[in-house]
Amino acid sequence: MSVFLPVAGISVNAFAVAGAGGLVGFLSGLLGVGGGFLLTPLLMMLGVAPTVAAASDTCAIVATSSSGMAAHFRLGNVDHRMGFLLLLGALSGAAIGVQIIKVLRASGTADLFITLTYIVVLGGVGTYMLVESLRSLRRGALVPEARVAVKPLGVFGRLPFQIRFPQSGVHASVFAPYVLCAITGLLAAIMGVGGGFIMVPMMVYILRMPMRVVVGTDLFQILFACTGMTIMHAFTNHTVDLVLALLVATGSTVGAQLGARLSRHLKGDHLKLILASIVLMITTEMAVSLILRPSSLISH
Amino acid sequence: MMSDPGLGRLAVTTALWLWAASLPARAEGAGAPTLKLTPPAVEMGMFYSGAELRIEGTVQAGSEPIVVIRGAGREEIFNKKGKAGPIWVNVGKVRISGVPSLFLRFSPEPVRNFVHRAEIDEHQLDEASIRHQMRIEPDQDRDAIVESWLALKAQEGTYGLSRQGVRLGTAKEGRVPYWVEFHWPKKAPPARCQVSVYECRDGTIIGTTTATLPVLKVGVPAGLAKLAAERAVLYGVVAVVAAAVFGFGIDFLAALIFGRKRAAAH
């Protein structure tokens, strides 16, 4: 069935778009990542212009994260206090990241810088998660997920203004999630993605939050971040396609529900292993595409 | 007072078709061919997936027609890939202009068989003449960029040459009927396209007739596109609210189907 996209100005197969959304939504519900880093290339493969694909993704992620977050909320997996601090940090970092990109674009080195940042950040995060989750799985049931209040790793555990985050079982300074998410937001803005795949490992390994609360809390902050981004895209670039977003959301919200339910039956280490594998696959694909001569010398 | 949206849409559509049908086909040359488009406009509604289009008319007996559809020429800006050390990255922008945004050509046989090269170039009737007219800034790696651009257009379905696309009927009263039937590419963007019929005899183009083919959004897509362009903030808020309602709605349905579950202790 074909559906015409009013802002993109093209006709697409509704089932293909909903299918792409379903895949990304499943990962979103399962792992707490927004899925923008995967959805934008998928929509571009279906013929949608990159600017419209990226902007409509953020709108679709509003639907996916609402659905996923509500499902996690009922399971008691959303830490609102932590979520608001993460959101504040991410927005501050993103504002700085946008300025850095502006300077790099003026100097003509933005694309090279973005590509290398992608490979270094994705490769580093993916490798660390893979090694750590494999090691943890080998240790077996000896290390259960922490339920006693723990402190964040290293210097982040010694910052002032410590408060308790009961939902996460973490005792941390208000600055710890703020600073960490400012760094994530900065990297995400440079890379042009939502940042869930950086945010999730940071919450797990540095803030030491249990994986299931990480997923729900990340979806909580993604919902607010993408709401703001969608309105900004609509206002400044006129590139949000509501029909495209709702088609994607049709698949992704159903996928997110299934993902959230499956996450209850998997160990935290299994979830980390899946996310690490996806991140490393994307990194490898990007690295290979940098070396091989592209089939076309021009792109939109 | 509420007006019936179905009646309103019907009235707009009818007016549009009457307007498009009333546009005169511009004819040049002594033996100008006739030209009729069915339908006279391509409407992009909610479930648009391209359109079946028929172009027909007559030429003088002994002449051969070439039918060309062109989208308005506009400058397009692309990212250009190049090598930075051992890796391929975007190294700048490239501007392409001087060529139509859409080019579909239909002829009864290969054009070179019945039209002189100079005429083909003058009227931009084949790929070689389009390549020649194309302006590329900066003009480096020209051949590779032209190839990439043509491949991109062919992939969209907006550039194509059909060597046996024009059918010819039996001559009657000194004129031969011709017709072309094809599926309008669904990835072609909204535009006011020009449909031209060239009447060729003895290697020369002796007459041309041109008509306008409007390709435009109608109904819900037209309304949403207008809202997005003219009331962007409202559109953004509507988009976010619609997405959130959709997401929570699906969650509500899922909770009804799978049952509500809450964490035991927190």
Give the overall silhouette of chain A. Answer: globular
Biggest β-sheet: strands ordered side by side in the sheet of chain A: 1-2
Name the poorly predicted regions of chain B.
1-6, 262-266
| Dominant shape of chain B | globular
Low-confidence runs of chain A? none
% residues in beta strands of chain A: 5-15%
Q: What is the C-alpha radius of gyration of chain B, as a whole number of Å?
A: 25 Å
List the domain count of chain A as a whole number. Answer: 1
How much helicity do the residues of chain B have? 25-40%
Polypeptide structure, described:
The complex is a heterodimer of chains A (300) and B (266). By secondary structure, chain A is mostly helical. Chain A has one domain (2-291). Chain A contains ten helices and five strands, in the order E-E-H-H-H-H-H-E-E-H-H-H-H-H-E. Chain B is α+β, with helices and mostly antiparallel strands. In chain B, 32% of the residues lie in helices and 35% in strands. Chain B has six helices and 14 strands. The longest helix of chain B is centred in the C-terminal third of the chain and has 27 residues, at 232-258. Mean pLDDT of chain B is 83; it is low at 1-6 and 262-266. Chains A and B meet through strand 1, helix 3, helix 5, helix 8 and helix 9 of A and strand 6, strand 7, helix 4, helix 5 and helix 6 of B. Strand 5 of chain A pairs antiparallel with strand 6 (76-84) of chain B.
